[in-house]
């Protein structure tokens, strides 16, 4: 249902496993017989949206292709506390080799998906699109942006390479909004879009005169956003309007009411709380209520 290039993340998973395993899991090697097999139960200890099941499956497959990973819920589904998410059967040592990495990734991604879902719910009844930002954990951007999609959100640009996004420092360095837009347009292919960030109405007018594809209203009050949207749509209705800056669950509805097309939220990824997920061998421990 949700597109994830597992081949692209396998190399990262190998590096992350190397970081954790090093020369070997000393504890398991010295306490568990090499031939022992077990069934591991992965379960959640709080309610939320689940993301990362195929990632966890890939972790165990990289360690030992003979391990059998069986998902018990659907990726992107909401689950209650205590729900069994998956089972892993096979060599006990190898299950424990992948336990921590698989859980770390699932917990992080499920936390992102859960928070994204909360923001999407807050936008119900509007036509506004919720998108993420580049405020991601280094090395985990592909996965974290995947988790945003699982939670019902959408992706902004993936990196510095796939769109022109002129922000305040670019404007300062270039010498102005119009200069920056005109310079970018002369250099990029016709298939690439130009987005410019504006903080006030003077910058907004400069941007409109140069005709970008997207205008981002940064850290404006909702009343000013509404005025800016009216100005943009009256002069250039084809321009997409994005709002950004200190967006919270408490403020997002007011921002959406201003008439913007897109709201970008950095806190979907950069300050998210992981969902509590655990792995138990052979039986599921009782979770405290």
Explain the overall architecture.
- β9, α9 and β10 form a beta-alpha-beta unit.
- This protein folds into 2 domains: 6-118 and 273-281, Aldehyde Oxidoreductase, domain 3 (Alpha-Beta Complex); 163-268, TIM Barrel (Alpha-Beta Barrel), CATH 3.20.20.
- It is elongated, with a radius of gyration of 23 Å.
- The strands form 3 sheets. The protein has a 6-stranded parallel β-sheet. The chain has a 4-stranded antiparallel β-sheet with strand order 3-5-1-12, with helices on one face.
- The mean pLDDT is 95.
- The chain is α/β, with parallel strands linked by helices.
- The protein has helices at residues 6-21, 26-31, 53-63, 92-122, 141-150, 168-174, 177-187, 201-210, 222-235, 252-256, and strands spanning 37-44, 48-49, 68-71, 78-79, 84-91, 129-131, 164-166, 194-198, 214-218, 240-244, 262-264, 277-281.
- The chain is built from 10 helices and 12 strands.
């Amino acid at each position: 249902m949700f597109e994830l290039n597992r081949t692209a993340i396998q190399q990262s998973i190998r590096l992350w496993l190397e970081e954790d395993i090093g020369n070997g899991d000393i504890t398991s090697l010295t306490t568990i017989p090499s031939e022992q097999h077990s069934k591991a139960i992965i379960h959640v200890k709080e309610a939320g949206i689940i993301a990362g099941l195929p990632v966890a499956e890939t972790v165990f497959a990289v360690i030992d292709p003979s391990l059998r990973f069986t998902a018990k819920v659907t990726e992107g589904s909401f689950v209650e506390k205590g729900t069994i998410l998956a089972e892993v059967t096979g060599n006990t040592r190898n299950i424990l080799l992948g336990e921590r990495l698989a859980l770390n990734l699932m917990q992080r991604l499920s936390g992102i998906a859960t928070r994204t879902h909360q923001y999407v719910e807050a936008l119900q009844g509007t036509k506004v699109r919720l998108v993420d930002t580049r405020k991601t954990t280094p090395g985990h951007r592909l996965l974290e942006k995947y988790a945003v999609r699982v939670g019902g959100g959408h992706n902004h640009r993936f990196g510095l390479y796939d769109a022109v996004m002129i922000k305040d420092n670019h404007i300062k360095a270039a010498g102005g909004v119009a200069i920056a837009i005109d310079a970018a347009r002369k250099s990029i292919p016709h298939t690439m879009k130009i987005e410019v960030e504006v903080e006030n109405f003077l910058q907004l007018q400069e941007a409109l005169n140069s005709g970008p594809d997207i205008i981002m209203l940064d850290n404006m009050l909702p009343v000013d956003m509404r005025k800016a949207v009216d100005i943009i749509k009256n002069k250039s209705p084809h321009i997409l309007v994005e709002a950004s800056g200190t967006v919270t669950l408490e403020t997002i509805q007011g921002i959406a009411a201003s008439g913007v097309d897109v709201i970008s939220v950095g806190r979907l990824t950069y300050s998210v709380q992981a969902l509590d997920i655990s792995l138990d061998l052979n039986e599921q421990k009782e979770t405290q209520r």
